[in-house]
Amino acid sequence: QVQLVESGGGLVQSGGSLRLSCAASGRTFSIIAMAWFRRAPGKEREFVSRITWNYGITDYADSVKGRFTISRDNAKNTVYLQMDSLKPEDTAVYYCAAKWSLGGGFKPSQYDVFGQGTQVTVSS
Q1: How far is C-alpha 71 from the geometric centre of its chain's CA atoms?
Q2: 66-76 per-position pLDDT tens digit
Q3: Which of 27, 32, 56, 105 has its CB surrounded by the most CB atoms within 10 Å?
C-alpha cells in the first residue's frame, strides 16, 4: 500500500502564492502517476493537475493553467504544487492522489489512494 501526506495549505490573500507538498510512503515503486484534486464547498472534487512518475509529463485544468505548476522529486517520493496568482475561487480542500493502475488520470475514480487533504483559503 501507499500512504500520502499533504502539507503546505493555509490562508493567503488574492494574488499570493502557496506551495503544497505531498509525501508518499510505502510501496512507492508501484506509482505511475500522481495528481492534485480539490473540493470547494458545495462542489464535487475536481481535477487540478497530474504528473507521470517516470517521465514527468504534466497536465493541468484550464482554470489553473499558467498559474499552477506541478513537479516531483523522485528521490524524496514527493510531489509539489506551486500555486501562484491565487484567486478566491481557488479556495478548497486540496487532495493529493496516486495511481498504480493503468488508464485515465483525470477523474478521482481513476486513482488508487488519496491523502487526507489540506485547506487552502484565498481571501479577496
Answers
A1: 10
A2: 999 999 999 99
A3: 105
